[in-house]
Design a protein that fits this description.
Keywords: Hydrolase, Membrane, Transmembrane, Transmembrane helix. By secondary structure, the protein is of the alpha/beta class. It has ten helices and ten strands. It is 37% helix and 14% strand. The relative contact order is 0.19. The structure holds zinc ion (ZN). The site of zinc ion has 7 residues, from loops.
């Protein structure tokens, strides 16, 4: 649960992520056959790159990536790289910030976490206790477990992984500190891991992207676009690896939401998203969230999305 106020209307993509990726793969397969006959040295054909990104165009502008390769530039290789067969790019030299949402001991520190902190455009609680399943499995336990599993995978890929908390603090940290941790680490990508607490029947995951916020200490102008690219890749991989459907109650089927009320996003200066992995209050989703094998898949989906973002 991401401690929210009312959700802003979701941005709609032109199609679902799944359909977009499928279409891009089909196009890439057909185009690749023709192009590879005439090109020497391989590389993906034009149009094969960034299938998820090219399907969104939600904000109408998509700056070139930091490596100087714009979407669709030949030789990028990300079209092939996005295939299921090659999730293992090297992350040597990359830093990933993982923020396990909440803290298992927050409920013992109600006063401390109720302190208001400045998130740029508002003041919010330092932190919240999070939600739990009906049987009492805490969101904070879930987030820490998935985060640790993702850390193992990303370290195996060569990444430096920084945590905001590792079950080693009496409470928190506060949301502003969670953002600052990624900034201090100069993280190449940052993700905050959560599970939602919504009504029974509301199912599936969604990824929350930062809105453009310029207020007080918040200025997300530079991270809105790369965060969307990160979020699209995480959502795409999460679908593929876990088999979970995008949320049926937020994001209009895209699995993506945009919010301006989260300090962890507002105060970030590095590309960052939140993921709500499922709804702890729905019995069917809860069955997944409490299953260690499913959590491993969730961690793999998240890690592969980050890897895609950092290597494409
Ligand atoms: Zn949460």
């Amino acid at each position: 649960m991401s401690n929210g106020s009312p959700f802003p209307p979701p941005r709609r993509l032109r199609g679902t992520i799944v359909l977009a990726v499928l279409a891009a793969v089909l196009v890439a397969a057909g185009a690749g056959y023709l192009v590879l006959r005439s090109l020497r040295g391989g590389g993906a054909p034009p149009g094969a790159a960034h299938p998820a990104a090219s399907a969104s165009a939600g904000d109408g502008h998509r700056p070139d990536r930091k490596d100087g390769k714009g979407d669709g530039s030949p030789g990028n290789g990300s079209g092939a790289h996005s295939g299921k067969g090659n999730p293992h790019g090297s992350l040597k030299g990359k830093t990933v910030l993982i923020d396990p949402g909440h803290n298992t001991r927050n409920h013992d520190h109600v006063r401390e976490i109720a302190r208001l902190v400045n998130i740029g455009n508002d003041r919010k609680e330092c932190d919240t206790t999070g939600t739990s399943t009906d049987a009492g499995y805490a969101e904070a336990s879930f987030t820490l477990d998935v985060a640790r599993r993702a850390r193992t995978i990303l370290r195996h890929q060569g990444a430096k992984v920084v945590f905001t908390q590792d079950g080693d603090r009496p409470y928190g940290p506060c949301v502003d500190e969670r953002a600052a941790a990624g900034n201090r680490a100069h993280a190449d990508a940052a993700i905050s891991i959560h599970a939602d607490g919504s009504a029974v029947g509301n199912r599936g995951f969604h990824v929350i992207l930062p809105a453009r916020v310029t207020a007080g200490a918040a200025d997300t102008s530079a991270i809105v676009a790369p965060s969307r690219q990160l979020g699209e890749r995480v959502a795409g991989r999460f679908v593929a690896v876990t088999g979970s459907a995008p949320s049926n109650y937020i994001g209009g089927g895209t699995g993506l939401d945009v919010r301006s009320d989260l300090g962890g996003l507002n105060l970030s200066t590095v590309p960052k998203v939140f993921i709500e992995c499922g709804n702890m209050r729905d019995p069917k989703d809860a069955a997944h969230l409490t299953d260690a094998a499913w959590r491993q898949k969730a961690a793999r989906g998240i890690s592969e999305g980050i890897t895609d973002f950092l290597t494409s």
